[in-house]
Design a protein that fits this description.
single chain; about 290 residues; alpha/beta; TIM Barrel; nine-stranded parallel β-sheet; 14 helices; 9 strands; about 50% helix; globular
Length: about 290
């Protein structure tokens, strides 16, 4: 893989042609392959660490710095939440961050531009987590075309029922953007249907309810992931509630990757523009726990 230009080096580059040449090398490397798929291929047996942040929370520069620092400290895939006025799948921490980001001027268009800037310096897989009304308001075809143009690799739409995925799948497939499906512990009779056309990875919800940090889990994860693996070879990653290195290490034993959101968002909410180093330290502790 071509060497990635780091953030400081990118700031020093004044030659536009040099940037274009770097981008072309990256496009050639990823030609025809979704970055999510490429990442899991590169990981092999290593477990993926997937992080979530709210886009535009404390400004787009904070978002960009967080993505680059998380990558540097072991994050493999980043989910960027698009702020929404009624985030029904989210717990209190992410709801608060979404409201704050909206009040600070965050928009879907602004998040697209933020990702476009990031693509100058990184090819880390990036997903958008957003609600279906945000896609409809933007225009479904136009939204997925922009995803392709700006470098978005996948979407998670938590309020879109499986039976209605046809409303976006045509355009998602056309522009090589993976639609990530969620499976909950109560999905047992529907696992076959949910996993049938899934791409990228399966988002396995650790517990019933909304996102948020949890002190313990009641799910029988051996059975849960056994049922999933019977129906699909797509990587299965678990999220909702994982909030510390110990939980991340324990969960990683059952699946192909661990997703951490609210715990990271809480740090950003607490420290704002000064959260970069603290988030970096936290995700490094997650990475070390998962790997050791």
């Amino acid at each position: 893989m071509p060497n990635r230009i780091d953030f400081n080096e990118a700031q020093r580059i004044s030659n536009e042609q040099e940037i274009k040449e770097h981008q072309q090398k990256q496009r050639e490397y990823y030609s025809g392959t979704n970055r999510i798929d490429k990442k899991f291929q590169d990981l092999g047996e290593k477990k993926a660490l997937i992080s979530f942040i709210t886009g535009g929370h404390f400004g787009y520069e904070t978002t960009k710095k967080l993505v680059l620092e998380m990558e540097k400290n072991g994050v493999d895939i980043v989910e960027i939440g698009v702020p929404f006025s009624d985030p029904v799948a989210e717990g209190a921490v992410i709801q608060k961050s979404s409201a704050e980001a909206l009040s600070q001027g965050a928009t879907l268009a602004g998040i697209f531009r933020c990702i476009e800037d990031l693509r100058v310096v990184t090819q880390i897989p990036i997903l958008l987590m957003l609600y279906i009304n945000s896609i409809f308001a933007y225009g479904t075809e136009n939204f997925f075309q922009r995803c392709r143009e700006y470098g978005v690799d996948g979407v998670i739409v938590p309020d879109l029922p499986l039976e209605e995925y046809g409303e976006i799948s045509e355009f998602a497939d056309r522009f090589n953007v993976h639609s990530i499906h969620l499976i909950a512990p109560t999905s047992k009779d529907r696992i076959d249907k949910i996993t049938k056309d899934t791409k990228g990875f399966i988002y396995c919800v650790s517990s019933n309810g909304v996102t948020g940090m949890r002190s313990e889990f009641q799910t029988d994860f051996d059975q849960f992931f056994s049922d999933i693996k019977k129906h699909s070879s797509t990587p299965a990653c678990v999220g909702f509630g994982i909030s510390n290195p110990e939980q991340a290490k324990k969960m990683s034993k059952f699946c192909d990757g661990v997703i951490v959101g609210s715990a990271i968002v809480k740090i950003v909410s607490d420290y704002g523009e000064n959260s970069i180093s603290k988030v970096a330290e936290f995700v490094k502790s997650l990475r070390d726990a998962i790997d050791n």
